[in-house]
Specification:
about 600 residues; Rossmann fold; 4 domains
């Protein structure tokens, strides 16, 4: 009998290596740059031709560069020494064109050779000096991470994720998050550094409900709170390129193309164009592309830069503190046009209501506060259309603009309304549980109003005191004479019938406390998950109690029926109370007819 041979491995390590390195967009960008350089293509994109060749040429603040370098070097050290001390994921978030991925490439060129171990390099790359392995959307993300684990030792590389899978598909997004959680919880040590770059932006929508990935492309909506709060993940937030750095790099591009600008008669007006681009956008690629378009045109052309995407807190901050770039009317007009996904959100007015007191350290006149609260109330009562929200924005901004700033303002927080909604749902389930116990065990009917006003607090409080007395009574009865135990138990039935696993002993809705502030945006996915988990637990507990109560009720009804059947049916003896003789006397008498009645009267009778 011939035994079947086990299937052989279809892919070797070298094939895996070629597959990983062939899909990297960094390779395409570098090839494009090499083609532009070799062909001396003056018509090529300037942001490719003059891309940073050294770390010092990257448009990034020194402090931000220091933070990224420190975290990435810690991750490389952990991989080199085979330990699990440092973070496993470096998350870099910010708007487009703020040098997120560029700084990773340049840091990898300097740091990876220092920590790449000596030995035979089994995973060979098509490109020499390849220090970054990047994921692209066409690949399976989970398989990519499985293969990326071997990028350590002599094959050490930085794993970069910039092209995300189709996270707009719920199942794909869930699989993406689970793969990242598996990476964070892997028992292996010495994993290569995994860097995720997310370009955050607000997606256009007239009336978004909540903060979901369909309306807000942010780290919170993509990854979820469980990943973001993990101790093995470090997040660094990037801001748009500031005007000083932007002007510096745009002037360098102009110097490189001085002859072209002079030939087109643009050299004398370059400074005004650079100032205009630096004030309009923080995206360096967009600014360089606009500068090239303006410089290569023979006539003056309008500058159309990419608009900066504002976060929820940034939009709230503009209403509270204003803008230095333009007046309030122009700023609000721009917000209503460019930030509809935030402005039209249900939580925007709540954010203004809960954060207006942060202006000037809370030192605001009472008259201004009354106007702000009234305007928000009127806007809320008028509806959710954009005109009603714009009315609240202009009214709040006009009141806060009159406040003299003498104290420092604090950081805004996310509205606590989402927590209150969750607590309301939990309170409703708890009330149903309490009402079931009162009905099936104590034969008491409780209305919803009575539960909210009285029994939610005092009912569990009374039963908690009785439970303490029940424990004492049980101990007392156990030490009594057996002949006296039943008598004492019968006198305290109302106390001894209490059952801690069925009766509610703590306040419905939990203890009285304040709702804590939330500094991060709470997305739809996180809110749904938290609400679903908590409600499921409460409903399971309620249903379990109800099943026990119904079982106890059926047992009691059965016992009562058995007692009734056990009693014999006996004819009751009629007592002679003197009425029977009178009844017999009246029944023997004949009715007397009044002869004065006529025949018609008798017929009527």
């Amino acid at each position: 009998m011939v035994k079947n041979k086990p299937p052989s491995i279809q892919r070797s390590l070298s094939e895996l290596s070629s597959r990983i390195s062939s899909i990297s967009p960094s390779k395409r960008i570098s090839q494009e740059w090499e083609e532009c350089s070799s062909q001396n293509d003056v018509n090529g994109p300037w942001y490719v031709r003059y891309a940073p060749r050294k770390l010092e040429e990257v448009a990034i603040h020194k402090k931000k560069l220091q933070d990224v370098c420190q975290i990435l070097e810690t991750m490389l050290k952990s991989s080199f020494h085979g330990i699990n001390d440092g973070p496993r994921i470096l998350l870099m978030t910010g708007p487009s064109g703020c040098s997120k991925s560029t700084v990773i490439y340049k840091l990898a060129e300097e740091l990876v050779p220092k920590y790449r171990g000596s030995g035979f390099q089994m995973l060979r790359s098509e490109r020499k000096e390849s220090h970054v392995v990047e994921f692209v959307e066409t690949d399976n993300f989970q398989d990519f991470l499985v293969e990326a684990k071997y990028r350590r030792g002599p094959n050490l590389s930085v794993i970069l994720v910039e092209d995300l899978p189709n996270i707009f598909h719920a199942d794909t997004r869930d699989s993406f998050q689970k793969s990242l959680l598996q990476w964070l919880y892997l028992p292996e040590v010495g994993l290569p550094p995994l860097v995720i770059c997310i370009t955050e932006c607000a997606l256009g929508s007239e009336n978004p409900q909540g903060f979901g990935v369909d309306h807000n492309f942010t780290a919170e909506s993509l990854l979820g709170r469980e990943i973001l709060s993990h101790p093995k993940l470090v997040r660094i937030k990037f801001n748009p390129i500031n005007a000083t750095l932007m002007k510096k790099h745009l002037r360098l591009n102009c110097e490189e193309n001085r002859k072209l600008l002079v030939r087109n008669g643009k050299w004398s007006s370059k400074d005004s164009v650079i100032d205009q681009l630096a004030s309009k956008t923080g995206d360096i690629r967009s600014a360089i592309s606009n500068l090239q378009y303006w410089a290569t045109s023979s006539v003056d052309v309008p500058l159309d830069t990419r608009e900066e995407s504002l976060t929820y807190f940034h939009t709230i901050g503009k209403i509270l503190h204003g803008s230095h770039e333009c007046d309030d009317n122009e700023m609000i007009n721009q917000l209503t046009l460019d930030s509809k996904s935030h402005v039209a959100n249900d939580n925007f007015r709540l954010g203004l209501l809960e954060n207006y007191n942060l202006v000037n350290g809370g030192q605001i006149l009472l008259s201004n506060v009354c106007e702000i609260v009234d305007s928000l109330s009127q806007s809320d009562s008028m509806g959710t259309n954009l005109e009603c929200i714009e009315f609240a924005m202009r009214k709040v901004r006009s009141q806060l603009a009159s406040v003299t700033k003498k104290h420092a303002s604090q950081k805004a927080s996310f509205p606590r309304e989402w927590k209150i909604r969750q607590l309301q749902l939990e309170f409703q389930v708890d009330c149903e549980d309490y009402a079931n116990v009162d009905f099936y065990k104590y034969n008491q009917v409780r209305t919803k109003r009575d539960l909210q006003l009285y029994f939610a607090h005092y009912g569990p409080l009374i039963r908690s005191r009785r439970n303490y007395k029940r424990n004492s009574l049980n101990y007392y009865i156990e030490n009594l004479n057996p002949n006296l135990q039943s008598a004492v138990a019968n006198r305290n039935t109302d106390v001894l019938q209490l059952e801690p696993d069925i009766d509610r002993l703590d306040r419905i809705g939990g203890p009285i406390k304040s709702i804590e502030e939330q500094r991060d945006v709470v997305t739809n996915d996180d809110s749904d998950v938290w609400t679903k988990i908590s409600l499921q637990q409460l409903k399971q507990k309620r249903d379990f109690k109800l099943s026990r109560l119904l079982a106890l009720q059926r047992e009691n009804e059965t016992d009562e029926e058995m007692e009734d059947l056990a009693e014999p049916i006996v004819d009751s003896e009629v007592e002679d109370d003197g009425d029977s003789s009178l009844y017999d006397l009246l029944s023997q008498r004949h009715p007397e007819i009044n002869e004065s009645l006529s025949d018609s009267d008798l017929e009527d009778l």
